[in-house]
Amino acid sequence: MSRLTFEGRVAIVTGAGRGLGRAHALLLAERGARVVVNDLGVALDGAGASRGPAESVVAEIQSAGGAAVPSFDSVATKSGAANIVRTAVQAYARVDIVVHNAGPVTFAPFGSLSYEQYRQLMTTHADGGFLICRAAWPYMERQRFGRIILISSQAALSGLPNQAHYVMAKTALTGLARALALEGAALGIRANALSVTGYTRMMEGFFHPDVPERPAIESMAHAEAWWRRYVRPELVSSVVGYLAHEHCQFNGAIVDTGAGRISLQFLSMTEGFVDLDLTPESVRDHVSDIVNAAGGTRAFTDAMAFLEWQYQKMVAAGATPVSTS
């Protein structure tokens, strides 16, 4: 089988100065992409700023014979996102791939979580995803080609204590990927959400239960070195490389990966129960029917497919069919 390469392609990777973003930028560049390495150089909680991380990754790519330019604009503002895309177009005349990886992480119990902490994460993760995709979209549309990878988290669908704001932000990116996939399908643009697990500075705190607001992984608290060995960022980047390639078959998918494992995650629905005169009492009396998955479950390609399914269920329960005359 031929090697997947990116000659002629231009990629933007946000949050590419460290950890997972750095690994994504290096893989794309090593396989021929010209890369915009975007990073503000902030701390894990979003504080401070430094050009060092982005410049270091650019130097690493260039020393290996690749092509890259740094970007120090914030993806969290309309002007910043526009400047990131402008950097790619001015340097390389096109934009083919967007990997939105940037985003700070903070921990706080919901009862003490401030609105400012909430907005900080939503602005970079969710607003940033929207803004960078919106800025790149016209170029992808004209090219009739684009690949969008929005980095999400298992926390988006499974939840995580002391991170309600992070969970909300990552869930928003999952919804954005599914919406863009539908609109981009006829334009040659594919968008996917990638839920990732990689040993980075974000995960370091999980191994230290003495920091009470961070959820510790109890069974692995003694084995941080094991995670460092097997849950490597570059394994996640291999999936990014596939999703960014023209041969990618996924569109609107929720892909989950970590430690060399890759899975497709999806939302499904039980057949449930229908009462055209539903009351609280009928809900109470049919909980077992509502949760029963023995009759199979359904996954929907989009909301319109769901509405069609709901219509068919209602007619089967006795609703008058819509007249076709």
Portion in helices: 40-55%
In the CATH hierarchy, what is the superfamily of the largest domain? NAD(P)-binding Rossmann-like Domain
pLDDT < 50 stretches: none
Oligomer: single chain
The total strand number stands at 10
Domain unit count? 2
Approximate shape: globular
Strand order of the largest sheet: 3-2-1-4-5-6-7-8
| CATH A-level architecture of the largest domain | 3-Layer(aba) Sandwich
The helix-strand sequence is EHEHEHEHEHHEHHHEEEHHEH
β-strand percent reads 15-25%
CATH topology of the largest domain: Rossmann fold
Derived structural class: alpha/beta
The CATH class label of the largest domain is Alpha Beta
Gyration radius, in Å: 22 Å
Largest sheet: 8 strands, mixed
Total count of helical runs of at least 4 residues: 12
What's the overall average pLDDT, rounded? 91
Question: Outline of this structure?
Answer:
By secondary structure, the protein is α/β, with parallel strands linked by helices. The protein has helices spanning 19-30, 52-63, 78-92, 115-143, 155-158, 164-184, 201-204, 224-230, 233-243, 280-285, 287-291, 303-316; strands at 10-14, 34-38, 67-71, 97-100, 146-152, 189-197, 254-258, 261-265, 269-270, 297-298. The chain has two domains: 10-265, Rossmann fold; 269-316.
